[in-house]
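ok posting inputs for the flavin mononucleotide job
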Amino acid sequence: MEMNETLKTIFSRKSVRAYAEGAISKEQLEMLVRAGMAAPSAVDQRPWEFVVVTDRATLARLAERLSYAKMAARAAAAIVVCGDLRRQWGGPDSVMWSIDCAAAAQNILLAAESLGLGAVWTAGYPYPDRMGAMREILSLPDYIQPLTLIPMGIPRGGEKPKEKWNPARLHWERYRENLGAEPEKRAAVHE
Ligand SMILES: Cc1cc2nc3c(=O)[nH]c(=O)nc-3n(C[C@H](O)[C@H](O)[C@H](O)COP(=O)(O)O)c2cc1C
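and the output
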């Protein structure tokens, strides 16, 4: 089947952790957040909040406190995708916010790829220490949960999308356990 532009973007997306000099315009950042807000959410509750950070000192503080998001110090910007426990479907003790916000975060990653930007999902939720650091630095109240910090910038280049297609994980009509050989998988490097 032929690739269209959307499929090309999906298959070209990769985590980018090294950035060249250069800013991301406010217009582009707003477009990324618009893409986030276009995501599906349970009962259309849209429990998300997006904190866009471009201030160098704040990016440096985030990098300093988050050992798996060191690249934030060299990023042009970062978008923190958060969920509001009060606005999610299922009440304040539900985890629906994290599912809704994951859909929004993926939209942002794909939109960034489509604009020629490089971005990477770095974890907030479910790690209390990382969420605490984001909470403190970004003044998030306790009902606002940070799912992910997405540092982004002009890609320095070099990263390639991984080939992840694995026919053993595809099941037609019903599940059948498949113990076939797994394709070689390189360990992720978080730095
Ligand atoms: C829930 C989640 C948490 C992640 N946390 C981090 C992180 O803290 N730091 C990081 O550098 N990458 C993080 N990643 C990115 C993954 O390492 C990356 O997506 C994976 O290695 C596959 O590579 P790809 O994105 O280039 O396809 C995370 C991704 C997800 C979905």
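notes: The two ends are 36 Å apart (CA to CA). The first strand starts at residue 19 and ends at 20.
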